[in-house]
Amino acid sequence: MSRADEFRLMKARGEKLVVLTAYDAPTARAEVEAGVDIIMVGDSVGTNVLGYASEREVTLADMAHHIAAVRRGAPGAYIIGDLPFATYETAGEARESAARLAAAGADCVKFEGARPQIVRALKDAGHDVCCHIGLESQHQAGKRRQGQTAAAAARLLADALALDEAGQDFIVLELIPRELAARITQALRASTIGIGAGAQCDGQVLVVHDLAALGTRDFKHNRRYGEIGAALRGAVAAYARDVREGRFPAEEHGFSLAPDELAAFEKGLS
Ligand SMILES: Nc1nc(=O)c2c([nH]1)NC[C@@H]1CN(c3ccc(C(=O)N[C@@H](CCC(=O)O)C(=O)O)cc3)CN21
Ligand SMILES: CC(C)C(=O)C(=O)O
Ligand SMILES: [Mg+2]
């Protein structure tokens, strides 16, 4: 049974999929140790780690670099990697881009938008595929709620069904009404992974910087489970104080020259 089959079985049993982003080896290791089912290396690495103004600046090289780091930190994890903006414009380009992410260590590739023909091309090339509809950061400048009218909701349901028909393994539902996400989850063979899409999805995903409060802002869809940003600032401030006041380093952080070597050394200098 493939890993994707195992996750499909979890959907059938009603077992939730716990998905979380990671961009580096130690974070990936901690997530595996804490029992995360799937690690997502999102193009959100751009705004959350690399200091870019937008997800659109993220390159395939960036993604490969961070996927490889996560793979080194979590050798056995199931990793979903984002295809960056404008790297899946044609079936051929999508296959080439996916091959790069798979070579870096991704088990599954994700892309944004209702493009069933891209799903087919990637499935034919042997990739597990995760789609992503609703709020698409790569394609929508304004970050706002999606599927808020009956017509928009019907459109997103139709998109999800077409992607399912094409063979997707997972689909991220971002910032859509809970009733629509529930309906899509019921209708699909693929597992739905929600973010700001209610509790009825097959799984949930968050950005690790958000749940640990290491980022710069709060989101309505997030819950803060830790205060890592505050802890980091506190630790750095204490270090700075200790260095300035001569309290760090202490004896135990260094070592001495042996007495005879010290004597010879000082004699040699005189
Ligand atoms: N740190 C981080 N967290 C994320 O959840 C995330 C990223 N980055 N980058 C990629 C996408 C973009 N996402 C976003 C970005 C902005 C909002 C946002 O502005 N939300 C509003 C509420 C919008 C509404 O309800 O209409 C908010 O106030 O939180 C939501 C999801 C989710 N993803
Ligand atoms: C928010 C998730 C789904 C994502 O696409 C990312 O982290 O880039
Ligand atoms: Mg993304």
Structure characteristics:
8-stranded parallel beta barrel, alpha/beta, 2 domains, binds 3-methyl-2-oxobutanoic acid, binds magnesium ion, binds 5,10-methenyl-6,7,8-trihydrofolic acid
Residues in helices, as a percent range: 40-55%
What is the strand arrangement across the widest sheet? 1-2-3-4-5-6-7-8
Poorly predicted residue ranges: none
User: How many structural domains in the coordinates?
Assistant: 2
Average residue-wise pLDDT: 97
Report the strand count: 8
The main sheet comes to: 8 strands, parallel, barrel
For this structure, what is the CATH class of the largest domain? Alpha Beta
CATH superfamily grouping of the largest domain: Phosphoenolpyruvate-binding domains
Walk me through what this model shows.
By secondary structure, this protein is of the alpha/beta class. It folds into 2 domains: 3-226, Alpha-Beta Barrel (TIM Barrel), CATH 3.20.20; 231-269, no CATH class. Helix content is 44%, strand content 14%. It has 11 helices and 8 strands. An 8-stranded parallel barrel has the order 1-2-3-4-5-6-7-8, surrounded by 7 helices. Strand 6 (170-174), helix 8 and strand 7 form a beta-alpha-beta unit. Helix 2 packs across helix 4 (60-73) and helix 7 (150-165) packs parallel to helix 8 (178-187). The chain is elongated, with a radius of gyration of 23 Å. Its cofactor is Mg(2+). It comes from Methylosinus trichosporium (strain ATCC 35070 / NCIMB 11131 / UNIQEM 75 / OB3b). Belongs to the PanB family. Keywords: Magnesium, Metal-binding, Methyltransferase, Pantothenate biosynthesis, Transferase. One of its GO terms (biological process) is methylation.
